[in-house]
């Protein structure tokens, strides 16, 4: 369940209370009159089932609560309550299948910006991948996959394509379009220093047969990217963080960037080109699959809302 807190002006309080009292998946309803200072107003709180959260947020938006006050959602880890159990049973659908669109937009929006933190993680991930390439270490390559933060902006692109927010799509695209070249330039400098120190030679790639999968592009490269994008978006909408980690270590994005740089510095332009193609295939595949998943869920929600506006999950 989720904890819902609403700050609203006194003239809207009774409407908010009536809305939450009538909601099938809401319970533990409390009211604190005059408790809010900025913005001033009353505070209404309730615990709500995930399945009915979207419809409640839509109704609160129709009341103008966002303009006059505010709405906050927090996840509840443990609830010991018969009333809460009854509310969950009364809510339509299953909690794991419920998509809270505003939560999804907020989560992906936070990760869609080109920040120093995002750039630093991507640089570190590509550098680790490059080390894995020259040492022929699949374990190191997998570690680089787990460090890479690239799924955040890719998910943001998918979310905002479905919600038709081109300006946010552009912002997320900039994070990917600038982040990867920046990480590859940093890795290029590191590779050149390693070569100058004699740590990397032309033979480094010849014997690296355990990481050949990085640059070998084939039909399954795109298939895996599609499957990973689907799994990643499903993990986001259902808050399954463990599954999201699995997505990070299943796609060859960061390793391909690292391999392309190392291969280019050693004059292996064929492998550098194939690695770059691998990177592009994976980025496109993930984005296409994530967008398709959200489009299906969005259409399902629209149809359910047309049938019964009060029971949209």
UniProtKB/TrEMBL annotation:
Chain ranges passing through the membrane: 114-135, 141-162, 174-193, 213-236, 243-264, 276-297
Superkingdom of origin organism: Bacteria
Entry keyword annotation includes Transmembrane: yes
Keywords: Membrane, Transmembrane, Transmembrane helix
InterPro entries membership: DUF389
Record's protein name: DUF389 domain-containing protein
């Amino acid at each position: 369940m989720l904890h819902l807190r609403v700050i609203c002006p006194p003239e809207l309080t009774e409407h908010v209370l009536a809305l939450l009292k009538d909601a099938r998946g809401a319970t533990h309803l409390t009211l604190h009159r005059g408790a809010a200072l900025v913005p001033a107003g009353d505070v209404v709180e309730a615990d709500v089932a995930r399945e009915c959260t979207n419809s409640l947020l839509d109704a609160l938006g129709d009341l103008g609560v966002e303009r006059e006050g505010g709405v906050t959602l927090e996840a509840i880890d443990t609830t010991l309550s018969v009333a809460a159990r009854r509310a969950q049973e009364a809510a339509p659908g299953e909690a794991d299948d419920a998509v809270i669109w505003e939560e999804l937009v907020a989560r992906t929006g936070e990760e869609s910006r080109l920040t120093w933190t995002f750039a630093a993680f991507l640089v570190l991930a590509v550098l680790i991948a490059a080390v894995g390439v020259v040492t022929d270490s699949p374990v190191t390559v997998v570690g680089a996959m787990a460090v890479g933060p690239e799924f955040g902006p890719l998910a943001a692109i998918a979310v905002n394509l479905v919600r038709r927010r081109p300006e946010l799509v552009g912002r997320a695209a900039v994070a990917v379009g600038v982040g990867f070249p920046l990480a590859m330039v940093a890795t290029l400098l590191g590779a050149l220093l390693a070569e100058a120190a004699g740590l990397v030679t032309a033979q480094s790639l010849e014997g690296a047969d355990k990481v050949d999968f990085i640059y070998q592009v084939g039909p399954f490269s795109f298939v895996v990217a599609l499957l990973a994008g689907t799994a990643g978006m499903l993990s986001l909408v259902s808050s399954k963080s463990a599954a999201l980690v699995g997505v990070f270590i299943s796609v060859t994005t960061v390793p391909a960037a690292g391999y392309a740089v190392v291969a280019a510095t050693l004059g292996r332009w064929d492998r550098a080109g194939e690695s770059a193609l691998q990177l592009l295939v994976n980025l496109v595949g993930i984005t296409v699959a994530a967008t398709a998943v959200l489009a299906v869920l969005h259409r399902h929600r629209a149809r359910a809302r047309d049938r019964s506006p009060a029971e949209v999950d």
